[in-house]
Design brief:
The structure is a homodimer of 329-residue chains. In chain A, 45% of the residues are buried. In chain A, helix 7 links the parallel strand 3 and strand 4. Chain A has a six-stranded parallel beta sheet, sandwiched between helices. Chain A starts with 5 loop residues before the first helix and ends in a 9-residue tail after the last strand. Chain A is an alpha/beta fold. Chains A and B meet through helix 4, helix 5, strand 2 and helix 11 of A and helix 4, helix 5, strand 2 and helix 11 of B. The structure holds a DNA duplex (30 and 30 nucleotides).
DNA sequence: AAATGTTGCGGAACCGGTTCCGCAACACAA
DNA sequence: TTGTGTTGCGGAACCGGTTCCGCAACATTT
């Protein structure tokens, strides 16, 4: 298993190594030499050493992917989509996890630059000045996925529109007393856009809304569900900012003896696959994570090749209207 | 942001670059020179070029991780654990996805070797002769995770023991008519060890068992649940080989109008977090994926440094006895 | 004082590619 | 026949590190 080098090929084919290199990179090589080299490469299973190549070219065929966490459904589906497409296109994916620490996102931007990745896909949560500075410093194309910023190419989920569409549907079904369970505004996409979409739909219909704030963790939403179960107001619908929150709220309601959708309706957002097989199945919005990942891969490759693409691109969404939300009229 | 090289450092410090290199790698350098070099490196933020280093050393600080799929709960948790520990230890993780194609596992073994990773953690499903050949060829430490083979260092889940323990518990609770829903034996851990553990427990108690075979996909288990709902035999318990299967079966039962655990009990295996918050909460076995990932990282690093470790190591498990299985006596 | 050992350092080769430059061979136009 | 252009190829430098070798300066032993 000793490494075959370009020198070996040159020697075996009886030519200079510069000629072999030219052959490999599509330079001008005569018919006769071309064939000799071809044969030798075939026989020896020669494959160029990537380090030597990168040393000179200061480039790799790697795309760095910065993710806040690896164990979320959204992240892993997205990564999967990215990987599939990159592999097809002859690139490799290098995933780095930041464990939800903003500081590490910045570190990793520099770090990936040091590793000479060709481009970076960043599944962001917040965009700060220091992020922007890092992106400027490293001189490498960066695609922001799932958040947006005017100075960075971004591919975003239509959180506002999707939330608005779902909210509007609920209004048409006659819900007028709504509880909204969301997350803090530090997460632009979920904490702001999604919330605003819902609230806009509710306000437009003149509905009565109460807002609760929780985290992305299932457990934290359980007590909220429990409290709602105890309360004696006349809310007919609980709208949750994520499927995880919906899961927690459902558990809390069950603990409090309420049944869905008979006593009260519940909706989620995000599109876990298994929301469909729960009983009751959960009304939610499906975001195409995997396809979006592939799309992101395409876009970063376009950026690499210098193509101009819009600063901001939206993905699609799909309402999944199921059993957990009741139709009042 | 131009790259500072060892030559620049040498020039600025007024020494030869070999001296700088020696300084960096802990060779013999005098006090005076040491300080000069130190200062210059400090000032310039010098960082060695990894490609140049790898070119010479034919090694990297990367550990390759081969996974059959990226979007499973088990895989993503495991990867997370691996990554955390590797980062702590100064290594980088390079994840490659095989999209569940055995052929690509073998390809990737060779491919990772080409990229000169220091070691490989392989989340395997089946081990064939060709895998073994590849592992022998590449001359790089490989740790098999989640499956076992006498010739490869492996870290495995105690599928048999865990299944046996859970099965025994069910027997103590008085279940004697059991339906087992598993997967084919091509997956050694799930299709064989897990099944055998259960069956052993059932047989020991003289229970009556019927076996169904399905896949890892939720959807494929739904019709099985539906058929069970229609059947008029007197099974009291459905034991599923994975949580996903349990989810599908539960849906099928719900479709058929059966309620759990009143009409029949259901158990899963694997330990999705949210099995706890479902209603009813699901009895299952929790496997410590994340911790196991960390453990795997430790082990591969031990292998790199030439330490001797046992060929086969077991992880732990924890029974999660919850609402979905009824206690008959 | 001479012989021997130790330490610090510079020079040069090497890892395996890419690329620039220039020369030789040949074709074609003047 | 001379001049001009094109094509194919080899030599050498270069990318940024590591490592081997040898020399000079100094310390230690006899």
């Amino acid at each position: 298993m000793k490494q075959v080098t370009i020198n070996d090929i040159a020697k075996l084919a009886g030519v200079a190594k510069s000629t072999v290199s030219r052959y490999l990179n599509g330079g001008s090589v005569g018919q006769a030499t071309r064939q000799k080299i071809e044969r030798v490469i075939e026989e020896t299973n020669y494959e160029p050493n990537q380090f030597a190549q990168s040393l000179k070219s200061k480039q790799t065929k790697m795309i760095g992917v910065i993710v806040p966490r690896l164990d979320s459904y959204a992240a892993s589906r997205t990564i999967m989509g990215i990987d599939e497409r990159l592999t097809e296109r002859g690139y490799q994916m290098l995933v780095v996890n930041t464990a939800q620490q903003t500081e590490r996102e910045i570190e990793q931007l520099y770090n990936l630059a040091k590793q000479k990745v060709a481009g970076i896909i960043w599944l962001g949560t917040t965009v700060t000045e220091r992020h922007l500075q890092a992106i400027k410093d490293i001189q490498i194309p960066v695609l922001l996925l799932g958040q947006e910023h005017e100075h960075v190419h971004s591919l975003v989920y239509p959180d506002f529109d999707a939330a608005f569409a779902l909210g509007k549907q609920f209004m048409e079904w006659g819900h007028r007393d709504v509880l909204y369970v969301g997350v803090g505004p530090y997460d632009i996409a979920v904490g702001q856009a999604r919330r605003d979409g819902f609230l806009h739909a509710f306000k437009e219909a003149g509905a009565n809304v109460t807002t609760h704030t929780t985290t992305f963790k299932i457990e934290d939403a359980i007590p909220i569900g429990e409290r709602i179960a105890e309360a004696t107001d006349d809310a007919t619908l609980i709208v949750c900012a994520t499927d995880n929150i919906a899961l927690g709220v459902l558990k809390g309601l069950a603990n409090g003896g309420k049944s869905v959708p008979v006593d009260i309706s519940v909706s989620g957002f995000g599109g876990y696959d298994f929301t469909e097989v729960l009983h009751p199945s959960i009304t939610t919005v499906h975001l195409p994570y995997r396809r979006t990942g592939s799309r992101a891969a395409d876009m970063i490759i376009q950026l690499l090749s210098g193509e101009t693409i819009p600063m901001k691109t939206f993905t699609s969404f799909e309402l999944k209207l199921r059993e957990s939300v009741d139709i009042l009229k």
